């Protein structure tokens, strides 16, 4: 399950800004920028935490 924005209005505005800023949308760069802009605007996410977790070191 992907992360879902809690405020669809802010997410739409962030995507609109990305579409104006980047020649190609959707793209990885444009989506990353839109997500960062959404977060800067105070937006939050819900859903599964997709961050990479550190692996535990195995003892020999």
Q: Output the helix-strand order.
A: EHHE
| Amino-to-carboxy terminus distance | 36 Å
Q: Specify the number of helices.
A: 2
Q: How big a fraction of the residues is strand? A: 5-15%
Task: State the secondary-structure class.
Answer: mainly alpha
Number of strands: 2
Mean pLDDT: 90
- Shape, per Cα inertia axes: elongated
Radius of gyration: 15 Å
Task: Provide the helix percentage.
Answer: 40-55%
Read across the widest sheet, the strand sequence of neighbours is 1-2
Uncertain spans? none
Q: How would you characterize the largest beta sheet? A: 2 strands, antiparallel
Question: What would you note in describing this structure?
Answer:
This protein is mostly helical and 60 residues long. It has a domain at 7-43. The chain has 2 helices and 2 strands, in the order E-H-H-E. The chain has helices at 8-21, 28-40; strands spanning 4-5, 45-46. A two-stranded antiparallel sheet has the order 1-2. Helix 1 (8-21) packs across helix 2 (28-40). The radius of gyration is 15 Å and the shape is elongated. The termini are far apart. The model has no long low-confidence stretch (mean pLDDT 90).
Summarize the structure.
This protein is mainly α.
Descriptive keywords:
mainly alpha; 45% helix
Task: Outline the secondary-structure elements.
Layout: E1 4-5, H1 8-21, H2 28-40, E2 45-46
